């Protein structure tokens, strides 16, 4: 059998505050990750979203799959605040979540506070 590097989906199986962000990535739980993140009840997952890309329901499928455990979804839209499309906000509402778009930096700070308060919070963070 050939041995080689096995590429796995980026996933941290727990909840952790974000210690740092910027320069193309995030630091949390004594680790670093390059790219965007979804911070969900099931853990912290790598996410394909990029700054400026369309924000559509398909991009948030993993979030919607865990909607029953999320009351508030913070959406870090990059360096600047971008409004969420009506269809996306409607999908979040239908799933029982409130959504709040903000810059990624503000979303990280808010996520950390709400996580420390043991709130049912999740964050979708587009890398800056």
Instruction: Please tell me the overall pLDDT.
Output: 93
CATH topology, which one?
Answer: Hypothetical Protein Mth938, Chain: A
Percentage of β-strand residues: 25-35%
CATH class value = Alpha Beta
Largest beta-sheet details: 6 strands, mixed
Distance between the termini: 41 Å
Which structural category do the helix and sheet elements fall into? alpha+beta
Number of strands: 9
Net shape: globular
**In what order do the strands lie side by side in the largest sheet?**
1-6-5-9-7-8
* Known CATH architecture: 3-Layer(aba) Sandwich
Summary keywords:
about 130 residues; alpha+beta; Hypothetical Protein Mth938, Chain: A; six-stranded mixed sheet; MTH938-like_sf
What report would you give on this structure?
By secondary structure, this protein is an alpha+beta fold. The protein has a single domain (11-125), classed as MTH938-like (Hypothetical Protein Mth938, Chain: A, 3-Layer(aba) Sandwich), CATH 3.40.1230. It contains 3 helices and 9 strands; from the N terminus they run E-E-E-E-E-E-H-E-H-E-H-E. It has helices spanning 61-65, 86-94, 104-116, and strands at residues 11-12, 18-22, 25-28, 31-34, 36-40, 43-47, 72-76, 98-102, 121-125. A 6-stranded mixed beta sheet has the order 1-6-5-9-7-8, sandwiched between helices. Strand 3 (25-28) and strand 4 (31-34) form a beta hairpin. The chain is globular. It starts with 10 loop residues before the first strand and ends with a strand. 31% of the residues are buried. The mean pLDDT is 93. This is Mth938-like domain-containing protein.
């Amino acid at each position: 059998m050939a041995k080689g590097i096995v590429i796995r989906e980026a996933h941290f199986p727990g909840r952790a505050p974000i210690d740092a962000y910027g320069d193309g990535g995030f630091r949390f739980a004594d680790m670093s990750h390059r790219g965007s993140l979804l911070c969900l009840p099931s853990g912290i997952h790598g996410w394909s979203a990029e700054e400026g890309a369309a924000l559509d329901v398909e991009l948030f499928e993993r979030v919607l799959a865990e909607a029953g455990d999320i009351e508030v979804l913070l959406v870090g839209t990059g360096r600047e605040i971008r409004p969420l499309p009506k269809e996306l906000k409607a999908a979040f509402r239908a799933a029982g979540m409130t959504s709040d778009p903000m810059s990624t930096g503000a979303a990280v700070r808010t996520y950390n506070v709400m996580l420390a308060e043991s709130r049912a919070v999740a964050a979708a963070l587009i890398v800056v």
